[in-house]
Structure formats: structure tokens, C-alpha cells
Amino acid sequence: MATPIEAPTLDFSSRFPEGVVADERKGFEGYIVDADKLIEFATALRDEFGYDYLSSVTGVDYVAEEMLEVVYHAYKTIGGAGLVYKVQVARDKAEVPSLYDVFPGADFQEREAWDLMGIKFTGHPDLRRILLWEGFDGHPLRKDWQEAYYEADVKPFKSRWPEGNFYRSEEKVDYKANVKYPGNFDPEKWVPEGEDALYGSLAKYEDTDTSGLKTDHITVNLGPQHPSTHGVFRIAATLDGETIMNMKPVMGYLHRNHEKIGERNTYLQNMPFTDRLDYLSSMSNNFGYALAVEKLMNIEVPERAEYIRVLMAELTRVQNHLFAIGMFLNDLGAFFTPSLYAIEERELVLDIFEMVSGSRMMCNYFRFGGLARDLPEGALTMIRGLAFERLPRKVDEMDRFLSDNEILRSRTVGQGYLSAEDAIRYSAAGPMLRASGVPYDIRRADPYSIYDRFDFNVAVRQNGDIFDRYIIRLDEIRESLRIIQQAVEQIPEGPIQTGKPQYQVRVPAGESYGRVEGPKGELGFYVVSDGKANPYRYHVRAPSFINLTAFGPMCQGLKIADVVAVLGSIDIVLGETDR
Amino acid sequence: MENKDLNSPGYEIPDDMQGVVSITTMDRIYNWGRRSSVWPLMFGLACCAIEMICTAASRYDFSRFGMEVMRPSPRQADMMLVSGTVTKKMAPTIVRLYNQMPEPKYVVAMGACASGGGPFKEGYNVVSGVDKLIPVDVYVPGCPPTPQALINGLIKLQELIDTQSIKQVRWYQKGELAAVPIPILGPDLIYQRDIPAIHDAGKEA
Q: How is chain B classified by DSSP, letter by letter?
């Protein structure tokens, strides 16, 4: 296991004599910042201390202490360990200054914290609900908010275990459905809020073109049911002719309450749920969550298990990128033929997943301190065949057929530009960040597991356009194959689990943030434990979600037809975007 | 009606006409045409959509069943494959899409979530199965169902089509077919059928 880079102890006492103190709760790290010092502190971190990348913003509801805490994770794009800082506010008056002006990447994350936690970010220009709809009653991630099917705070529920007198949840609720309304709600007098807030915020743009004929602008919706939105994603755009004046992504159509359910579950019960986040790359999701909890439990993972983990994570990257490239070509109009070739190769990787874990997509393969089971006989031979023979050839083939295609080139080169500075400011991650010329790969910048042992290059492209975001995925497949080739050669025999496999793990109180370089970008799991059997707070820093922050600005001034190309090049999966 | 009666005309063909003439029923030929070209709506909700795409791709290839023509427009689709978790925010859209599909139309609930809420059932934004909103013809279990399971479900749908009689199907009956009422996004999802009950409950409180 790579030795984690020690967080440097920064002395803020001279720069901030007041308002910044170290977090001294047991198991917690970082600094607690006064709300009125937050913007100054964040700016100083960015400009003076080098923490220019705001990775994650989330809230925690400490209901016993009558306190809401906003947690920020900052990193340096030159690599190294991160820095955590927090702002604490009273629950009944939850107002925190918005970091939108310092880090625009906080945009969607703050909206999410407002939506689910009810933390008001003053100064945010567009603080609307993001995952739920305007008019929804309450903020569901608050600890005292209960859903219609509420049974108990944590699992296992008494009705299910140990007696198992289960019932259908519909039988015990009003209206026999998963709904509940405020006490005095009268649907006949009530006026729906509709989408005025969305269209209101869409109308905010500057019309710079005053020459020529004055034309009306129209608002167009793509999705949520649209073949190019990669699922139930919606784009609302204001157009001048075909040119985009302003564009807002609308999401939440697949918001399935991952975090609320995750806080009811026991630690291990969450593992299969992580599969369903980014459902194309379940092994990577398992990896991130296992890392976060292992950090809290402070346990080691046996050698062989580490190698298998790396193998699986890299195979995941390969198949995810294959799928992404196939679907991206779909969006460009090469309908389904490139996808057919890409999916054919992906099926071969899925065969390996099915072999080792029993399931093609929802692998649920990682355990805290190891893996669910060892590799079956023949798996390594199959991986070897793929990594040395078949996949390198097929990747070259795709490259040969696609990359120089004139239509692909003319639609992608120079379009949808994102500069390196903007990519960092908007907290873009993964291929999107690296295609803009920022060589930031967590496997190298802050190595986890055994990635420090492998010889591979961090794929970087310099132009930051759609084409680079496509070609970088081919580069990454090649680098992943290199890692796989080394790992199958080096993998030792041995145990695959530390200690006995357990259903119920003991997790000491504290917080941890486990992050991996997933195929879509930095996938982080923020877990707060209070020492009980369930995570007190469980948050996912979803790269698909945060990468979309830059989507609107990137599309400004493009033609509407190019929007689907830009979206395809970001490569989102709605399960992770909406969680 | 029994499948046997539906598909046998009950006429014997004389020996010298065998191979030249064949007699079948109107129902049989009507259903044969429909079952061999069920066009799905190109509509993916969640994880199951990926398996649906794999089913459409070369290894499993559901064009063998005449189903490869996925239509992005509900106006051209025969079947809605509900492939994933139905959330409350998505519910009005799904019902609207269903209402826009012309008859005859079928709904296949693919996977645990679409069938009954699945692992996410307890979630505050999740509808416990798409059958709470629209009628479902075939349920395919699994999380997600493998392509084989989905194909099995689609064959079941074809078998269902085989048993329908032109005389009895709902889309040839007199009168208009009522559209499914679209649920409303309020403080929570409001099913229109519940509005009087919610009104009364609100008064009491």
C-alpha cells in the first residue's frame, strides 16, 4: 500500500489570528473557519497556499449539537495531500457565504447542499433546488426529516430482522404510495411552482450583439427523454437563432436518494449501492468506498487483493472509455456502428467481471480489507489475453478508423473549448481536466493502493476541445492496459482478505475522505462515523455531477447541435450525476 | 381467448391444395405482423438502460425479434421499455410519454426498480414501481436483468401479443381511450386520484 502523503501542518495563526482554529474532535482533521472569514480564507488558500482546486463541498447535519457543518475539501493541482476546512452554523439559521466567486466549481455543489440540507449560501447567484423540484417539502438529508416509508433511523429494521415479519411498505402508509404531505396541505387551493425559477434564471444573460436586426430569443428544452442526453438529463437553453445565449442543465430525474439510504444502511450494505452510482464502472465505485472506510478502520489490504483491485479498476476504466467513445460517436451522428464495435469489446471485459464477481454490471466485489472472493481459475489467462493481445489491437483499430475521420474532426476540433484555468476553477476532474492540459491524475498526484509501483504515463492533451476529450480516452485505455500488463505479471499468491470476512464491521468515530481516479474523474466518498454500525454521514463527490458545472459556460456561443457533442465528450452517467 | 382457437381456422385443406394454399385466421396474421416488429421507445432511465443497449448490440442482438428499430419519438413506438428507477421527478414525463404513444402499446417493466422500487424503494424520490403510474404488460426481474433475461421478457411479450384477438383488443372498442392522468409535482408527488382524499385530510389537520 502506498504510504499516504502526510498533510503538511500549516500554521494559519499568523495569517488568520482569529476565526480559524484546528478541528480537534477525535478522528477529525482540518480547520474550522468562521462564516464571516470563509471567503477570505478560501481566497488565501487558493492564492497564497496553493490549494487551487476545490474538490468537494458538502454539508453534515449534527442534529444533537444543533449545528450544520459545511465541509470543503481543497487540493493542489500540482499534487499532494488535501486540506479540509469547515464552517459551522446553527441549524435554524443556516447561512454560509457562497464560494461561487472564488471557486465557480462550488456552484452545483452548493445548490445541492441547499436542496438536500437546507443550507443557504448567501451570494450564490442562482440558488435553486437542483436534484428535487421547486416546491418540494423540506430538506431530506436533514436528520429529522423522514420519508413516507420511514421505519427506523438505521437498519436492520426490526420488522425485517431477526424475526422477519416483513410487510409491503405501501400497506402502512396513507394513499398506499410513497408520498406524504404537510398537515394543512390542500391540493385544490395549491398553485404549483412549476419551472418559473428555471426560466427566470435562464433569462439572465447579456445580449452583446446589438448590430443588425433585433430578433426574439427562444427557449428550447432537450430532454429528459432525448436520445442524446445519455439518460434522463435535461438541457434548457435560450437560443438566438441557433446560437446558445444561456444554458442550464436540469437534473435530478434519476435522484434516487443514495445518500439518505446510505445513512440508514450499515457500512457493508452500502457496497452494492455504490455499484449503482456510476453503473458503467461499479468496480471503481467499490474501490473508492472501500478506501474511505478502510481509512477510518485503519486496516491494511493484502498484497494479492491490492493487485486484483488494481486489475479490476483498470479494466473498468477500459470498458467505460470504450462505451463512452461509442456513445460519443453516436452523438456525433455515427449512429450505433462505432458503438457496436466498442460494446463488443466491452462485453469481453464484462465476461471477466461476471467470472470474478457473478454479475456483469453490479459487481459488489470489494470488501473492507480485501475482496469478496479470489479470482477463479482461468480469469488471469483471460485478462492476459485481453490486455496483451486483443484490446491493444482493437484500440489501434478504433483510433485508425475514427480519429482521422473528416466529419469527426470538423465537428470536434476547436469546439467546446475549456481552458486549463477554467477547468481548475470549475473543479472539472478526470479526462476533462487532463484534456485541458492539467496533468492531474490522483493515481499519480496522491497515490492510493499500489499505484506507485506501476510504470504509466498520465495522459494529457493540451487543446481542451471536444476532440482532445475524445482522444484522451484512447490514450487512457492504452495506459490502463499497460498497468494491467504489469499487474498480471507481478500478481503474487496469498490471502485476499485481512482477518475474517464480516457482515458487520466496527468503524471508529471520525471522518474520512477516500478518493480514487475513476473513469469519469475524481470519485470521492466522504464518510462520517459516530462509532455505531451505520455511517452518520455518507456523501459522494460525483465526478459526472461536478463536471457538468462547466457545461453551461462551455456551450455559450456554440450552435445548439454542438451541445450534444460537448455533452458526449464530458461523458456523464446519470446514476452518478443525480445519485 | 385460448391461443389454440385463435390461431387455427378450423378448415381442412384438401391434399392437392397443400403447399399452394394455406388458411389462417385474421388474428393470426394481424398478430404475426405486430409481434415481429415491436418498435421500442428509445428511452433509458438508469442502469438497466445499459443492459438494454447491450441487448441491442451485436452479441445479443434483439433485431432477431424485429425490435431493433428504437424510436426516439413516442408517436412511432409500440413498446415502452421502462429500464430503471422511476423517480417522482420523472413520473409526469413517463406518463406523458405513455399517453403520447399510439395504440396498440405495451409496457415492459425492466428490472427490480421499475417492477417495484427495487433497492431504492424506500427513497423519498422513488416511485414504487412503474405500475403505480401506467399499466404494465411484462415484468422482467433482475438488478439489472441480464440481456438473456430481457430477451426472455420480450419473448413473453410476443406470446402475449399472440393471444390477443382483434375483436376484443381495447383499441378497437367503441369510444375514446382515456388518457392516464398525469401526476403533479407538489410538496410531494400528487396522484390525481388522491386529490379528494388529500383535501379531506388537510381540512382535518
A: --HHHHH----PPPGGGBTTB----HHHHHHHHHHTT-PBB----SHHHHHHHHHHSTTT-GGGGT----BSSGGG-SEEEEES--BTTTHHHHHHHHHHSPSS-EEEEEHHHHHH-GGGTTSTTB-S-GGGTS--SEEE-SSSPPHHHHHHHHHHHHHHHHT--TTT-GGGSSSPPPPPPPPEESSSEE-GGGHHHHHHHHHH-
Judged by CB atoms closer than 8 Å, whether chains meet at B47 and A361 is answered as: yes
Q: Is the ipTM of this complex over 0.90?
A: no
- Could B122 and A135 be called an inter-chain contact, meaning their C-beta atoms sit closer than 8 Å? no
User: A-B interface: how many C-beta pairs under 8 angstroms?
Assistant: 179
Please give the single-letter amino acid code of residue A353. Answer: F
Q: What is the mean pLDDT of chain A?
A: 88
Omega before residue A224 within 30° of 0, cis: yes
- Size (chain B), residues: 205
Q: Are A46 and A52 in contact (CB under 8 A)?
A: yes
Give the DSSP H or E segment for A120.
strand A120-122
pLDDT the model gives residue A212: 73
The string of DSSP letters for A300-338 reads: ---HHHHHHHHHHHHHHHHHHHHHHHHHHHHHHT--SHH
Rounded Cα gap, residues A384 and A471, in angstroms: 25
**What crossing angle do the helices spanning B147-162 and B47-56 adopt, rounded to 10°?**
80
Chain A CB contacts of B199 below 8 Å: 186-188
If one counts every other C-beta atom within 10 angstroms of the C-beta of residue A129, the result is 19
A2 vs A153: which has the higher pLDDT: A153
Put the strands of the sheet holding A67-75 in their side by side order.
A20-22, A31-33, A83-90, A67-75, A53-62
Each residue's pLDDT tens digit, B117-142: 888 988 899 999 899 899 999 999 99
Eight-class DSSP state of A492:
P
- A247-261 mean pLDDT: 90
Tell which residue, B92, B93, B144, has the closest CA to residue B115: B144
Q: Helix (H, G, I), strand (E, B), or coil: what is residue A210?
A: coil
Closest-CA residue in chain B for A232? B45
Contacting residues of B for A135, CB less than 8 Å apart = 185-187
**B123-150 b/e with 16+ CB inside 10 Å = b?**
bbbbbbbbbbbbebbbbbebbbbbbebb
Residue of B nearest to A150 (CA): B122
Contact B112, A278 (CB under 8 A): no
**Cα-flanking dihedrals φ and ψ of residue A169, to 5°?**
-60, -30
How far apart (Å, rounded) are the C-alpha atoms in residues A272 and B10? Answer: 55
- As a whole number of Å, the end-to-end CA separation of chain B is 51
For chain A, how many residues are written? 579
Question: Considering only CB atoms, which chain A residues are within 8 Å of B46?
Answer: 231-232, 254, 256, 276, 279, 574-575
pLDDT value of position A369: 87
Do residue B186 and residue A135 have CB atoms under 8 angstroms apart? yes
Q: What confidence tens digit (pLDDT) does each residue in B140-163 have?
A: 999 889 999 999 999 999 999 988
